[in-house]
Model the fold of this input.
Amino acid sequence: MNLPQVVHDYVALKQSMGSRFRTEAAILKAFCKAVGDVAITDVEPQQVARYLAGSGPVTRYWHRKYEALTGFYRFALGRGYVALSPLPKTVPQRPEPFRPYIFPEEELRRLFKAAGELEAPRMALQGATLRPLLLLLYGTGLRISEALALTLADVDLGAQVLTIRESKFYKTRLVPIGPRLAAVLRTYAHDRHRQGHANDPANPFFVTRTDTAVTRGMVESAFVRLRNSADIAREDGARYQPRLHDLRHHADNRIMPSRAAGDRPAALWRCLRSA
Done:
């Protein structure tokens, strides 16, 4: 059998068993593209090694690809499509894991202020949308994908509850929000309506200036600009600069307070008053 067909069958099997399998499917699709439309028995170890290596240093994604291919070749071996796995026998050491960045209060103040002032005529994502979105991530600990998936029907500002549908573990959950965050979102919703954006309950809550859904790529790109504009950078020797995802860790600190975390809710609203 050819490689793409076996990949198709493997992904279909996994998804029929209830797994989303999106990341693995994307990895295997990229693998097929890198190797070509060949028989699965013709895949050479050197081709697998080149795909795993990519074009840069070893990252955690190397291991993510290796794990996806390991599962795939276990499937292929079990069905007799191949006699041996072409995966490398030795695996490089995993890189140092991400160290979350906890933003000092002053940096949060600058970040939210810069978000509110973001205005660029050619940018679809404007500050009036970005600032409440970042405050939502900071205040609730939602994943960016969950926040961007919110529809108008999912945001009940009267009851101060968000409905998060089919999140990471395929379950819908309710997330309460406080009155001050609700007020921020209410102001955004009012401005959204005033600007004539679509108001069907199924429409996305966060939209661009052209009334399209905000994408993760837009937010992450804007976050890098904000981080640089606000002069925020790590000085602890970690490999990665502060990320959008790091805002979630502040929510963790508020749920389980520590001496270092301090009064996070109070810190948030001090930032709001001055941003």
Notes: Residues 60-78 form the longest helix (19 residues).
